[in-house]
Amino acid sequence: MMSKRKEMKTKSTLSATQEVLYGREYKRADKAGGYTNERK
To answer: Where in the sequence does UniProt note compositional bias of the Basic and acidic residues kind (predicted)?
Structure first.
C-alpha cells in the first residue's frame, strides 16, 4: 500500500511538472505561430 501511494505521488508531481513545461512551450509556440487570435 505504501509503495503504491508513493508511486501515485511521484506520478502526480511528474504530470504537474510536465504541465508547466508544456504550458511554457505552448505559450512560446503561441507567440511564434500567432495562434492567439484562434484562442480568443
So the answer is: 22-40
So what's the pLDDT on residue 5?
A: 74
Tell me the C-alpha distance between 2 and 8, whole Å: 10
Q: What global pTM score does this model have?
A: 0.37
| DSSP-assigned letter for residue 34 | T
Q: How many domains would you assign to the chain?
A: 1
Name, in order, each residue with C-beta under 8 angstroms of 35's C-beta and a sequence gap of 6 or more. Answer: 29
CA distance 12 to 21: 14
Structural domain boundaries, residue 35 = 2-39
